[in-house]
Amino acid sequence: MDKLQPYFRKAQDFLRVFYTKRGKNGMAQVAALSFGLLYLQYQIRKYNGWLKKKSVTNEHIFITGGASGIGRNMAIRFAKLGAKISIVDVNSEALQKVVEEINKTYGEKTAFGAYCDVSDPKSVKNAIQECIDYHKKNIDILINNAGVVSGKQILNNSEAGISKTININTTAHHWTVREVLEKMINNNHGHIVTIASIGGWVGVRGLVDYCASKFGAVGFDESLRFELRAINSKVKTTCICPYFINTGMFDGAKSRFPLLLPILSENYASQRIVNAIFQDEAVVIMPIILNLAIMVKAIFPTCVYDNMMEMFGVSESMDHFKGRALQN
Ligand SMILES: NC(=O)c1ccc[n+]([C@@H]2O[C@H](COP(=O)([O-])OP(=O)(O)OC[C@H]3O[C@@H](n4cnc5c(N)ncnc54)[C@H](O)[C@@H]3O)[C@@H](O)[C@H]2O)c1
């Protein structure tokens, strides 16, 4: 501390001179600027994954919809870091390929795969028990990632299609979380990750059922976070809200200004999500610029927001959507 004394004295002298010259307003400007710079450097560190990270070695990570896209990508990344991986999916063939790929690269019993339709509570219960029995460990990190999109406007969609989207993208989160949360709370350890979407904050033409389901997922995450806060639990929650990712799920969707609002790459999005989990981030909007849309929506009249979304081409982004076939 003694070594720092001269620096403290210099800082005090600087502030005294500054105050004499600029008065209270000047001090307020300096305080605001310092706060701004501190906040900016924190955001940069967070965005690049430079904050303090927790270890996932030997943690049991359970990923729904892990047979393809970002689910598969995250499973491989976590396996590389020494975690025990469980992936579940309705696509058994693709699921088995991912399990084999991980076990071949990172050790024989690193990954386990089980068939699971997340919209069916019984299927969820059985799959979770199978995974716990296989790894002989309760689930430490649950990633609710399985999702579907119809890409149909409301009148062109079917009752079955609409129900399927809501059941898989929102209701299923209740089934998985109800299976694991009690043990997490009792152990005061665990993490529930909700893979939502920017469609959980802003509505898009052609995505009525999808946005409804993702607004639900965002609300699910936020309410769960408050339930955990109320009991001072150390169980963490993370809600991920990405723009389009090039996994194939949203094939054909377009960004009018790709430089400003790029379609995210699967690798980038997966690494960002893994970092967010490591850093116990509560909510991630990506790319970061989309926070502006949320701010405009919260502050300005609806007509300003609506015009902005149309100007940036967000509302027409689904006009050439092809996607993957939704099996009804
Ligand atoms: N791709 C994007 O542009 C994008 C953007 C924002 C959010 N997301 C979200 O990210 C998540 C992953 O998307 P992705 O791009 O990797 O898509 P993806 O289609 O590659 O992966 C989704 C996986 O979920 C599985 N699945 C579907 N229904 C299921 C069910 N009933 N039970 C279990 N598994 C089921 C599929 O078989 C598939 O393996 C989804 O929740 C999606 O809504 C994707």
TrEMBL record:
This is Short-chain dehydrogenase/reductase 3. Its main location: membrane. The chain crosses the membrane at residues 282-300. It is a multi-pass membrane protein. GO terms for cellular component: membrane. Belongs to the short-chain dehydrogenases/reductases (SDR) family. Catalyzes the reduction of all-trans-retinal to all-trans-retinol in the presence of NADPH. Signal peptide: none annotated. It comes from Paramecium pentaurelia. The lineage of its organism: Eukaryota, Sar, Alveolata, Ciliophora, Intramacronucleata. PANTHER family: PKSB, RETINOL DEHYDROGENASE 10. It is found in: Membrane. Keywords: Lipid metabolism, Membrane, NADP, Oxidoreductase, Transmembrane, Transmembrane helix. The keyword Nucleus does not apply. GO terms for molecular function: all-trans-retinol dehydrogenase (NADP+) activity. It comes from the Eukaryota.
